[in-house]
Structures
1.
Amino acid sequence: MKLVESFMTQELSEKLKDISIAFNVPEQEVLTWLRSSVRSSWGDSPMKRYMETKHKFQIENTNPRSCKRFPKVWRIRCALCEEAYSPLSMELDHVYGDNSLKTYTDAQSFIDSIIFVKEEDLQWLCIDQFRVKDLEKQVQELASEEVETEMDELIEIDTTEIHKNNIRRAL
């Protein structure tokens, strides 16, 4: 019983680290599993179904091949391009996509940002707009990583020069 109580009071990052060690699973594999589990549960969530029900509307079917059997079809409007698409061609996007999961310490904030989201922080995007937004995010992340790498190199060079100068002064 004490083990269960101890486990329930541990931080999520500690719990993930513990199961990684207990089952001899690398950190990245645990994080990949967590990421896919959280995203999968979001995809099947009642909140997502609520958003679809709230935002979908019917229009007249103009497809000659199916209009007799299905005179009306469901559509959802894209928040960016404002075109109406089939719900199957839409993605429910988290407006604030700071959903990083690179280490165990990111786990709780990742879950909170995906699962415990407010309605106003969600938007429907067509697949094309969703891809564009995703690519823009990837470019920003790459640029940010490059800047960090360059800053680290500059700091290392600067630190090395300082050490050299200190050694010269000492001599």
2.
Amino acid sequence: MGGIKKFELKLSNIDYSVYVIVGDGECNEGIIWESLMSAAHYKLDNFILIVDDNKLQYDGESEKVLNIGSLESKFKSFGFETYSINGHEVSEIYSVLTNFKTDKPKAIIANTIKGKGVSFMEHTSIDSDVEFYKFHSGAPSNDAYLKALQELIILVNNDIENYQLLQCFKI
């Protein structure tokens, strides 16, 4: 999960950061927690875990599939410098990535909405225990893809016009 490579780099005195992005559903897997224990134990201060916490898995809502409780409290208990942010706000992501405060490994819980920004994809089908989130796997139709792309282009252009993206990256 990135920890072994960071451990090798740390021992070699090479200054790199390792970014690992996982979904909240992946946090049901034991190997995730084993890797996090190692990152904390070996003081991998440039290990940065980002969790896409959209509260959905392929087969339903995360807490119904396997409720693992508060990710934030778990990461803190493992010895991580932990943040919980709006994963759709570029300014929040930038702020946390540029203002770490400790020499601990970092965990960023990016609270997100699956399909955000595409009107017909946002949280589709999560109200039913029977129907899966239909855009989780597989590809949208060509028409749906083009419509989604148009909506996302408008969102990005609006962000650029509002300087949100430009200010974060000092462009």
3.
Amino acid sequence: MSLLTSFRALRRRRHGLAAGAAALGTAVLAVGLTVAPASASQYYGTLPFHSLGGNQQWYLGSNGSGVYGTTGAQQWDFFQSYEYYVGGQTTWNFRAAGTGSCLDGNYAGAVYASPCDSNNTYQNWSIGGGNSLGFTVQSYQTGLCLNIDPGSGAVNAIGCNWNNLNEVWNW
């Protein structure tokens, strides 16, 4: 089963994750010399985020501190977190494969990358709502969704609306 197929299957499963979390316990996952974003997480693989906003030219990118739209696909490591749930859905930590920094944000809607921290709930995101084209990426802490400006590629977080293609992402 491919990473994408298994990830989609996990998105559809809203129950039974707690049992998996209990079985996992408090294991720490390490990748190379970098500790995974959450202390109780499972690495699922690496995929790019592709925005459906504007003319669909943007991918989510990071230079280690900033998060922005880029025309070249940057890879993100996906870690399923068993510590936090949003509306019955598990949360995810996303680490920029090239920099090792995690997707982060705040209540003001700023989105950035910072060192991965298992105690930072602002680094927990859920893959939720969406439409037949893709899904939204919602912050566990703020409830805001990842958004991209289709003209400039600037990334921020705003109130979730899966009818706004600037908030809809896919692989």
